[in-house]
Amino acid sequence: MLNWSQLVNPSYVAVLPHLIVTATLLVVILLDVWFKEKRSLVWVTLGGVVLAMLSIWYSASDEQIRAAIAAGKPLEFWGDMIIADGFTFFMNGVLLGIAALVILLSGDYVAKFLRGAHMEFYEIVLAVTLGMMFMVSSRDLLTIYIGLELSSISSYVLAGILRKDPRSNEAGLKYFLTGAVASAVLLFGLSLLFGVTGTTRLPDIATALAGGGPVVAAAGPALTPLLVAGMAFLMVGFGFKIAAVPMHLWAPDVYEGAPTPVTAFFSAGPKGAAMAAILRVFVGGLGVAPFTDKWTLIWAVAAAASMTLGNLVALQQTNIKRMMAYSSIAQAGYILVGVAASGLQSAEGISSVLFYVMAYAVTNLGIFAVLTHMDQEGGWVEVDNYKGLAKRNPLYAWALLLFFVSLIGIPPTVGFLGKFFLFRAAAASGYLWLAVLMAVNSVISVGYYYRVVKVMFLDASDDPALTPSTGISATVVLSLVGVVLLTIFANPFVQWTAQSAALLK
């Protein structure tokens, strides 16, 4: 008789978050067919995501997993498809938190504008989330690519889900066409790395490059151009996902045309997952001299271009969704400062990226929660539509003020702490010029955020007061609490990110 313990490893609790999200997706699909009252199923979706978040704590508390992580040998599952380390647990927690807030803020919007695709929205959000979780949980190039494709294809559908809105249709089509090209370029880069090293496992790639594995040793220096080409193609593919310059052109049109809750999701979820995948691939696989010097410099240049162009063009925007799109491009530049620093100061650079991704996500989702309410109430997406918001809804106005101050990086907000950690990592890595440029760009960003603050508090408006929305108000409050907690109790979160980053390389 078979022993069940021989078939199921107790340590498989590490994959519980992925299994719960998958099960929730299947349940929602089935209930969507059976239930006529679709609105109530939103809570099923939200409950599944919250349960997956709780399972991360349970998984991280498993004795076998903790012992493996402490020994520097994290457990691997399903042929290295998923790895149980601190980095996985941290990023999955962040991504699931993003998904939960997006589901919470989108309830009224979906009920009003997506009646024909009510539950399809949440099914696709779960599919995107599952793909992102696989991206950050694997040390194999193939699994990372599969996760990226699952999240990308689902994202194309989300962007164009407003079937009768030409702008949404255009956003979905543009996202699909540009994303397909970027995906092909990324796949070509993966194939070059596989051809050079003979493996798709990131630790084995690092070993091959460091020790001159059989394929590298046979060809010697002649393979260097192929490696550089492979890295370049990977940068193009991942750069598209994070909307880094010059792979950013899709972002303003997609952000403007997609439904506002979808824009909120795009601004935080895929960007954070792609950043985590970049760290996995470049630090965990390509963090070997002399290749480190090559990719750190390229990411540094991309960081400088992204934050500068993003902030300068944002100054000219009158549509607030396009303004936030260029702000998102600039924020990607700030995060890439930490990525560039991670090549030489691995632990500090990685930790700064993780902290800033978390801070940026909670702040940006709070902003987009307010934008979602404004959009669903009157289609208000222009900066002038925010006139008199301080009187129409004081909670939203003061919340936006705090979120903008945090994104600028004014002390003592969590945004300031995040930028300070990035600045310190860059300076320690020899990229002082990049750190100075980041400070200059933070000053530039004051211009377009101030324009919104001015019209909210100083300009009068005849528009009626905003009717409170339970889901959106709850999202705004939770984001406010998150920003405050990350500011006041920053040290535990900093230690958490440091522990998560320690074993990545």
Architecture overview:
The structure is a single chain. The protein is an all-alpha fold and 505 residues long. It has a domain at 289-505. It contains 23 helices and two strands. The protein has helices at residues 4-7, 16-34, 41-60, 63-70, 86-105, 107-113, 118-136, 141-159, 166-197, 202-211, 214-219, 224-242, 250-257, 260-284, 291-314, 320-342, 346-378, 389-392, 394-408, 414-428, 432-457, 470-488, 490-502; strands at 75-77, 82-84. A two-stranded antiparallel ribbon has the order 1-2. A hairpin with a 4-residue loop joins strand 1 (75-77) and strand 2 (82-84). Helix 2 (16-34) runs antiparallel to helix 3, helix 7 (118-136) packs antiparallel against helix 8 and helix 8 (141-159) packs antiparallel against helix 9 (166-197). The longest helix has 33 residues, at 346-378. The radius of gyration is 22 Å and the shape is globular. Mean pLDDT is 86; it is low at 1-8.
Structural topology:
Layout: H1 4-7, H2 16-34, H3 41-60, H4 63-70, E1 75-77, E2 82-84, H5 86-105, H6 107-113, H7 118-136, H8 141-159, H9 166-197, H10 202-211, H11 214-219, H12 224-242, H13 250-257, H14 260-284, H15 291-314, H16 320-342, H17 346-378, H18 389-392, H19 394-408, H20 414-428, H21 432-457, H22 470-488, H23 490-502
Antiparallel strand pairs: 1-2
Helix pairs in contact: 2-3, 2-7, 3-5, 3-7, 5-7, 5-14, 5-17, 5-22, 5-23, 7-8, 7-14, 8-9, 8-14, 9-12, 9-13, 12-14, 12-15, 13-14, 13-16, 14-16, 14-17, 15-16, 15-21, 16-17, 16-20, 16-21, 17-19, 17-20, 17-22, 17-23, 19-21, 19-22, 20-21
